[in-house]
Amino acid sequence: MHEDIRRLADRIKGADRVCVLTGAGVSAESGVPTFRGPQGMWKNHDPTELATPQAFSRDPKLVWEFYNWRRTLLSEVQCNPAHTALAAMESLVPHFTLVTQNVDGLHRKAGSANIIEIHGNIWNVRCTSCGHERQDPSPNLGELPCCDVCGGLLRPGVVWFNESLDPELWRQSVEAASRAEVMLVAGTSAVVQPAASLAGVAKRFGALVAEINPEATDQSDMMDIALRGKAGEVLPKLLED
Ligand code: BJW
Ligand code: ZN
Prior knowledge:
- This protein is 35% helix and 18% strand.
- The chain contains 10 helices and 9 strands.
- The strands form 2 sheets. It has a 6-stranded parallel β-sheet, sandwiched between helices. A 3-stranded antiparallel β-sheet has the order 5-4-6, with helices on one face.
- α6 (81-90) packs parallel to α10 (231-237) and α8 packs parallel to α9 (198-204).
- The longest helix has 16 residues, at 60-75.
- Bound molecules: ligand BJW and zinc ion.
């Protein structure tokens, strides 16, 4: 492990372009629950089954209860050393792109600037009638929040299953992955598409690809380096001299 950390750290320090893909595991050490695995349950509902347009059509109150709970939880948590290390890494690399599947806003809070939030941001709300989108910092928006422009039902400004990612954000993500010399994949089970395909794109275009995750994933076999550990412990080590 130590040698792999050194090898990866040297490649990052010598690189002109680095792309990082993060997932829920990067916020786990802040106390944010991940989606899958033993902790990924909420009131006997599978979170991934609530993150769908079908669930919202069927029971918008339940879906808003889930998102109000998460917003409240997120309003109380802090960034962890994984977020801070990625923000520091950005200042070392001339062209650094952080593609995150996380909607919690913690990377920006930690000081990362060039971030692509491909699954949206939980602090945004969008009107299901007129499409008006805005930020709302209140943790709890109530049972069925309404649009202040047209009175329509608001929904969370996130990307649910079976919804398309913003095409421009996706184009930028693929471009960053395809141009990267080093691609880091941290804290994601890498099962959700199209995000999970970015590591393969980077590898096909010649990048060194590395995974940081305490568990093996479906993508571990294609990795050049797999660092088995917590993001908040491993990522800071990549910045040590
Ligand atoms: C640590 C750690 C520590 C723990 N340190 N690590 C069949 C085959 C292929 C694809 C499909 C299919 N059927 C449908 C699809 C498409 C679908 C998809 O991929 N489904 C698969 C699950 C099968 N994808 C979509 O629908 C996407 N859209 C799309 O494809 O558009 C085209 C299209 C249009 C129309 C119709 C069909 C397609 C959209 C995907 C949107 C995902 N949205 C969510 C919710 C966001 C909002 C919210 O947060 O509420 O995004 S779902 C959820 O999963 C969330 C996450 O961003 C995403 C990924 O999860 P992540 O981050 O990987 O978390 P976990 O919990 O899975 O993993 C945590 C990891 O951390 C684990 O590995 C741990 O070991 C590790 N860990 N502690 C480091 N301390
Ligand atoms: Zn509206």
